Amino acid sequence: MGPPGAGKGTQANLLAVSRHLVKLSTGDMLRTHVKAGTELGARAKLVMDEGGLVSDDIIISMVKAELDQLDPIRVLLDGFPRTTGQAEALDELLASYGAGIDAAIELRVDDAELVRRLLGRGQQEGRSDDNEATIRRRMAVYHEQTKPLLDYYRQQGKVRDVDGVGTTDDVFQRIDGALETEPV
Ligand code: AMP
Fold first, then answer.
1. What spacing in Å lies between the alpha carbon of 26 and ligand 1's midpoint?
2. What is the set of active-site residues?
3. pTM of the entire structure?
4. CB under 6 Å to ligand 1: residues?
């Protein structure tokens, strides 16, 4: 977990490979729908371009469809859950498979650094939601709706806080180390 631009996608890719996990990114799934021109993609694009959140129902059914295909469930979730509703639905879903969450990683990066990174990514990758107005909205949504989830996982003793500023490799080593320690 972490605000937009914290490096979740990059670190999730590395961690999935090193720990032999299947990476599930709800943002990537939505972008695949947008590219394929599905009805869901068209609806999601409107929300994504505004920096809002796609409805819990859509997100949960997309994740369920992926999890249903896995046995055992060894996944790294990137960008999900983002709301309390999603977190509760995820717990129920995982419990129905006899699985559960082992750890929630929080990547910490300050706001000025985030805007700098995201504007750079917008230019390089051409993501239509990486413009300044949308970035500000996505950050606000993160602080209002997603950050409180850290308390939900902290109460369960599952959160590892990691400093997300540094080289990709530095941050990866920190995450890797944090997963070997006791949660905070
Ligand atoms: P991301 O690639 O994770 O930064 O997601 C890009 C955009 O996709 C977000 O700003 C949301 O509009 C949408 N999105 C991705 N994951 C979720 C989710 N779990 N819940 C709601 N919206 C999501």
1. 6
2. 8, 82, 121, 127, 138
3. 0.92
4. 4, 26-27, 30, 47-48, 51-54, 59, 79-80, 82, 86, 129, 138
CA 40 – ligand 1 centroid, Å: 13
Q: What is the pLDDT along the chain (184 residues), one digit of tens a residue?
A: 999 999 999 999 999 999 999 999 999 999 999 999 999 999 999 999 999 999 999 999 999 999 999 998 999 999 999 999 999 999 999 999 999 999 999 999 998 899 888 888 878 888 888 888 898 899 999 999 999 999 999 999 999 999 999 999 999 999 999 998 765 5
What is the DSSP secondary-structure string of the chain?
A: --STTSSHHHHHHHHHHHTT-EEEEHHHHHHHHHHHT-HHHHHHHHHHHHT----HHHHHHHHHHHHTT-SS--EEEES---SHHHHHHHHHHHHHTT-----EEEEE--HHHHHHHHHHHHHHH--TT-SHHHHHHHHHHIIIIITHHHHHHHHTT-EEEEE--S-HHHHHHHHHHHHTS---
